[in-house]
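Model the whole thing, not chain by chain.
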Amino acid sequence: MMTLAEIRDFLDHHFPQLKASGRFTVEELRPLGARRRATYHEDQIRPGGTISGPTMMTLADVALYVTVVAAIGPVALAVTTNLNINFLRRPGPRDLLAECRLLKLGKRLAVGEVLILSDGEDEPVAHVTGTYSIPPG
Amino acid sequence: MMTLAEIRDFLDHHFPQLKASGRFTVEELRPLGARRRATYHEDQIRPGGTISGPTMMTLADVALYVTVVAAIGPVALAVTTNLNINFLRRPGPRDLLAECRLLKLGKRLAVGEVLILSDGEDEPVAHVTGTYSIPPG
Amino acid sequence: MMTLAEIRDFLDHHFPQLKASGRFTVEELRPLGARRRATYHEDQIRPGGTISGPTMMTLADVALYVTVVAAIGPVALAVTTNLNINFLRRPGPRDLLAECRLLKLGKRLAVGEVLILSDGEDEPVAHVTGTYSIPPG
Amino acid sequence: MMTLAEIRDFLDHHFPQLKASGRFTVEELRPLGARRRATYHEDQIRPGGTISGPTMMTLADVALYVTVVAAIGPVALAVTTNLNINFLRRPGPRDLLAECRLLKLGKRLAVGEVLILSDGEDEPVAHVTGTYSIPPG
């Protein structure tokens, strides 16, 4: 399994735009799980004062991707094949946390889920499942 | 039904960041359908040279949102409740087109689907379904 | 909240075919959660010796429905609007357990998730999310 | 590509319970598409007089499976990895038709969509997407 420092280097190298945005951080890496933070910024706001859905989808997708890559090694070519998101509550103007865990890590496919929370609150703002295709070794 | 000019004004007003990005355009509005373009830009690229999933999710989500709003009137508070995306092929370095149509326009929920295509190619790069909750009138 | 006995009576009354099948039991009811069992029967088998996907979808859908109805009262007309299932592992020839919990219980929509397990095993065989539309009171 | 007669024999052989139910028929097979019928029967009814969700999920899942198998040859071990269904309208007491087409037929994954219609009506009652994992040749 990759370390937190290794996974951060991997992301900075392969996703320079994420690094440039300065808003996303992998905070914690566990076996088959991770926590990722999206720093609040008013650019993400949509009508009604809530954070945009695409911000949450990006947060969850990369959280799952990171967890898969940390488990299988630095394979930049793993790709998302399916992502399903249920938006549950309007998040307030604060950071978002993505708590993710893999439900399956197979040879060809990995499947995981993510709960997205507003920092400091208990009720999830969104739930995501994602599937990743793992290239032949 | 709102006109194409009206829907563009509505988006510019309610989603200033989309306007600022200069990359997304509603090209066509039909009864219960729309076409939206994402101009190619290298910032969207992820490892393997393909356009990022979040770019496609944003493109589809707003295409559906616009189609719902055009049908029900300028209600900025319609919200996405579910979005499901299947990534089918790696798009090349060119514009993406989202062709969307509503499958249901009810009083409380609207459901639609989107095919995302690389401009100039026939095979879809992604398929999206989305559900939108419509606030009580 | 309805009791386990009340929810079983409700299901027997409104879903006589489920009762007739003799295969599904609500085992436990918690605030915003439930466990439901599908007794193993060789009719559910599909090629490869695994239990059919539709058996798992039925198990999860009714588990979520029951949890929503237990929370809001005996409203037979709540309806599923979306169901998403990821099949993770082939279940063996044994009972299936659905562990479900609601992620949101709103006035108009309820959203929940279900882990489906083979009785006696730790790794989930499927993960389901479902959305239910609640009729105006 | 397999013929309609071949695909019917394949299903009868591998899914004897479907045959025993006497309710499902593959009506038409096209390159990367198929139409499948579920004969109306009052057993499928749920509260509110509508056909049950699991009946629709079964109809769509097997319609997609059949289309994949017809395209790749009689490989009984292709398996569903993801199925997402949006229920759009309550179907009346009549046959259901599933019109399906594949959006992608890759070496490892096939993805398709299904529109489910009440026989004789224009508006779809449900929309389904499904993903199938194809075993190594």
